[in-house]
Each structure stands twice: as structure tokens, then as C-alpha cells.
Design goal:
The protein is α/β, with parallel strands linked by helices and 360 residues long. The chain has 11 helices and 7 strands. 42% of the residues lie in helices and 17% in strands. α6 packs across α11. It starts with 23 loop residues before the first helix and ends with a strand.
Length: 360
């Protein structure tokens, strides 16, 4: 059986194309989400209700290989300790358990080799897709996920069906495709979010919190005008050039689609409301600051995308190192020659605070 389309992890290790060496832009927003985490814990977490168990369980879903996950976890635990101190509780009586989740192919070896030596928590890896159950019922107090929920559980079936109006021939993504393709991707996102929220509703204690940070397009903005989508349009044009050159077959291009969707904050809000098991306590968009986090050169952008997509391209397109070098060298040049950077502000990073609010 073919594995899920989103089961291709970030590049592991610590080499030049690894995720750990090409994810500094995300660190900016993890730091900025720290304020939301502090406010979430201070205002909404009933720590006294959980202190009797002496254990506080945290999960980072889509953790990849670090180091960003360690910064995020540290922010959560510091906020909990501050809440304890504000209530006159001894935070030392709490034992913190942190679960690092990602797909089975994730480089957990690199992740655990990089664990901070002075950490004050027990660490465990939980392999598997977050589009399904991962933990026992009502055990998690705080769930965090950053830059992961744009990955879909799979490519919409319609875009690969030659008899469907949504067949995405000659393209690898949806932003510049016809309306049927865009709708198929949007529907897949909505379906996946329902599965994600239902699974977390089983795992998070009543009153427990989730902070989810993800790249979004502005409400009402055309998909084709979003920076990340414009960037991937350039990747698509590079693959088309390789077809014209004879390096890549047209058939292989037609069969390849990216399993990602960049939703709007409104789409996320609607998904939570449809599900009904969590309440939105706060939603923050870092629109005006987004451009600062995006790398400034084509080479840096190409390196970031290569860290994310190399595994997918190797398996689905059978690309070797030489073809990957050719593709991403061309990708970098096209970025430098294009006007794509002016669209950086058409994307935003949205952080949403959710509270487990029903027993359903």
C-alpha cells in the first residue's frame, strides 16, 4: 500500500540541505508566538485542576528534527512554571512529559541527539500521522503545532483522475489551476482538519489548550497572489523546463502534485466551528511582520524548499542528487529574476489558541 502523501519528512541530519540548517525563518515566528502561549497559559489554563496528578503532558505535533521544536517546548514549559509561581504553587512538584511527534520516517535520531542537556522534562518520540489518534484518551494538557498543518493527509483524488474536471494536468499545485482543482484542495483541507480536531478532542483533557501556528493567505486574497504559492509556481515552471529539455517526462510531471494547502484564517475558524469540540480563545495574525522571516535571496529560498521537498521528489519523481541540484539551482535563479518577493506580505503567519470545551 502506498504511504500517505504527507509522510515524507523534512530532510534529516545536519547537512547543507537538512531541515535543521534551513529553518531559521520559522524560529522568528516561534519566538513571536511565545507571547500568545504565555497569555494562553496565564488566562486559560486551570493548572490547579491538574496539579494533583503531578504530571503535565505536552505534545508537539509535526516536530521535525529540531532545533525549533525545543524552543517551542521551552516556551510552553516556562509559561506553565510562571503560572504556578503566580498562584503560589511549587512548579518543582510537576513532572513534565513532552511527546515529539512526526511521521515514522522522521529523523528522530538527530532530534534526540540534539535534546538540550539541561532540559527539565522527560522526552519521548511518537511516530505517526497527526491525522489520526496518537495518544490515550484525555491525557494531554497542552498541544502545540507549528508550520505543519498546511501538509494534507493526501493529494485530493480528483486532481489525479484524468476523467475529472479537477485533473491537474501539467501542474504540481493548485494556485494557478482551474477552480475545480482549488476546490478539491480546499475540501481536502476541511476534511483533514475535521479528522485532526476529532482526534485531538479524544486526547486533550477538558480545559486543555492547543496553540496552532501555520502559514495562511490573507482572508479574501487570491491563492495565486500568496508568496508561498507564487514561489511554488516557480518550482512548477522549473519542472516544466526540465520536461522541455527532456530531463523529465511529461507523464511523470502530470502524475506529481504537492500535498499542501495554505488556508485562510477564516477557513481555519470555520473548521473549528464545524467541529464544535474546541472553542477559539484567540487568533493572531502576524501580517505586517511576515516579510521579515522570508529569506532574501533565491538561493536561501531554494535551500528551504529543498529541505522540505527533497524526500517527496526523490520518491515520487525518482530524482537523484544531480537532478535535484539542477532543479533547485534553476529554482534559485528564477527567484532572483522574478518579482515574487513583493508578494511576501500577501502571506501571514496565524496562531490560534483553542481550548477543549466539550465532552463530545
Amino acid at each position: 500500500m502506498e504511504r500517505p502523501s504527507n509522510a515524507y519528512p523534512m530532510n534529516g541530519g545536519e547537512g547543507p540541505h537538512s531541515y535543521s540548517r534551513n529553518s531559521s525563518g520559522q524560529r522568528i515566528f516561534i519566538d513571536r508566538a511565545c507571547k500568545l502561549i504565555q497569555e494562553a497559559v496565564a488566562e486559560h489554563l486551570d493548572i490547579e485542576a491538574y496539579s494533583s496528578s503531578r504530571a503535565f503532558l505536552v505534545a508537539d505535533l509535526g516536530c521535525s528534527v529540531g532545533p525549533n521544536t525545543f524552543y517551542a517546548v521551552s516556551n510552553v514549559l516556562q509559561a506553565v512554571e510562571q503560572k504556578c509561581h503566580s498562584l503560589g504553587l511549587d512548579s518543582q512538584i510537576l513532572e513534565f512529559q513532552v511527546f515529539f511527534n512526526d511521521h515514522v520516517g522522521n529523523d528522530f535520531n538527530t532530534l534526540f541527539r540534539s535534546l538540550p542537556p539541561d532540559r527539565r522534562y522527560h522526552a519521548a518520540g511518537v511516530p505517526g500521522s497527526f491525522y489520526g489518534r496518537l495518544f490515550p484518551k484525555s491525557c494531554l494538557h497542552f498541544v502545540y503545532s507549528s508550520f505543519a498543518l498546511h501538509w494534507l493527509s493526501g493529494i485530493p483524488k480528483e486532481v489525479q483522475d484524468k476523467s475529472s474536471p479537477a485533473w491537474n494536468k501539467g501542474r504540481i499545485f493548485y494556485p494557478s489551476a482551474n477552480e475545480e482543482v482549488i476546490n478539491a484542495y480546499a475540501a481536502q483541507f476541511a476534511k483533514d482538519m475535521e479528522v485532526f480536531l476529532c482526534a485531538r478532542a479524544q486526547e486533550v483533557v477538558l480545559g486543555g489548550l492547543m496553540v496552532l501556528s501555520f502559514i495562511t493567505r490573507l482572508d479574501g486574497a487570491p491563492h495565486s497572489q500568496v508568496f508561498v504559492n507564487r514561489s511554488l509556481d516557480l518550482l512548477e515552471s522549473c519542472l516544466v523546463d526540465m520536461v522541455k529539455k527532456g530531463t523529465l517526462s511529461e507523464e511523470r510531471l502530470d502524475e506529481f502534485n504537492l500535498p499542501m494547502y495554505y488556508a485562510s484564517p477564516q477557513e481555519m475558524k470555520e473548521a473549528v466551528e464545524r467541529n464544535g469540540r474546541f472553542s477559539i480563545k484567540k487568533m493572531v495574525e502576524l501580517v505586517e511582520e511576515s516579510a521579515e522571516a522570508y529569506p532574501l535571496t533565491g538561493k536561501m529560498i531554494a535551500s528551504t524548499w529543498r529541505a522540505a521537498l527533497e524526500g517527496l521528489l526523490k520518491e515520487k519523481m525518482q530524482f537523484g542528487e544531480e537532478m535535484l541540484d539542477e532543479l533547485f539551482d534553476l529554482f534559485a535563479r528564477k527567484h532572483d529574476e522574478s518579482s515574487v518577493f513583493k508578494f511576501a506580505r500577501e502571506s501571514s503567519i496565524t496562531s490560534v489558541l483553542l481550548e477543549r470545551s466539550t465532552t463530545n
